[in-house]
UniProtKB/TrEMBL annotation:
The lineage of its organism: Bacteria, Bacillati, Actinomycetota, Actinomycetes, Micrococcales. It comes from the Bacteria. Signal peptide: none annotated. This is MFS transporter. Residues 22-400 form the Major facilitator superfamily (MFS) profile domain.
Amino acid sequence: MTASVGATAPPRSASGGSLAGARRVTATVFAAQGVAVAAVSTTVPAVANHLRLSSLEMTALTIALTLAAGAGSFAGLAAVRRSGPVAVMRAAVLTAAATLLSVAWAPGRAAASAAYVLFGLALGAIDVSVNTRAATVERHYGRSILSSFYAAWSAAGVAAALLTAGVSQLGWPVQYVLTAHAVLVALLALTVRPQALAPVPSSSSDRPAPDDEIQGRRVWSRLVPFGVVLLVAYVVDSTVSAWSTAYLHQTLGASLAAAPLAYAAYQAGTVTGRAGADLMVRRVGQVAVVRAAALLTAAALASLAAARSWPYAVVAACCAGLGVAALTPLCVAAASRLRPGAPETVLARLNVFNYVGVLVGAGASGGLGATGHFRIAYAIPAALALALVTTACFFRPTAPGPPHAWTTRRPGSAHVLPVAVDRGRRP
């Protein structure tokens, strides 16, 4: 059964819970995660100086964090199945806030390293739980809204990067910078409240049978194209997010106060891109959006690699964010529709590509940066982004697929998402 939602006020679930409220809660968790990630990314040079870590040691610490996030994703999957996504979201965000404090006030390298690993575990749990909830909310709305959640993530990242730059300008040590971020993340976590979502009404004759969903090895085969796009998107994201501050500071001569501005500009670009991505999908379709995003990302990264000074790099980082903005939410939305009755299962697998991309991006760019070749670290992802143009066809709504695939209409008409029943799952 195809259910569409018009442009009227958001519906309410049969149990009385507000769908708009569920959307706000989900966006809040995305924002909290954005602040937490930005807190870690924009303090890389300051933490390295504070702990007397070399570039290679900081790269190894970033890789350990990413590996922990991959493990946290599967731990989060088990927790979501047991307790539901909302409980996991709240607990994981509070854990992320606590680990930021631990990094800030760690007495030595060993304690700080352990805190980074715990932060990675919390980050992975947030990923799988919040994306599961976002996919469920999107199915209830019956139209593309996932990009708006990622826009909240990016907007929070901009605010956090500016907070890092502002506090650093005041001369505060990194301990106080991370403490300010931790307090903000904790406050956002305390606003998370469960919003019950009843199954979308559907007749039994129209309801897809369990066998109709993509199962087993077929999930991986159908997931790979979206995973490749997500992998490259996170290579780009981690290269810009994790090392743009160091690139501006070490290669382009920016001060510690100016260096975080590239991260802020990158996130500002993603906010802008994601704010309009859902509308663009409805107007021109997913294939055109993916192709345009890949081309813009490639051009922006090439400009970032060739930047003559840090202000040019800031502008290029903004354009890179604008280009890559739609890729992640489109991949998550497409993957979650492979098994709409159990999206967390597919999303946990999709996160494998996510963290491989982060490992490749952060590890390779950190290694190149340690040898003074940050420019090459941005040129390589530019070529990878250009190659994504060839993957756009996999996002074609009319391609053979499960009965839950997007339904496309002419530009200007409704873009409808068939809604699957959320089979007895906790809110």
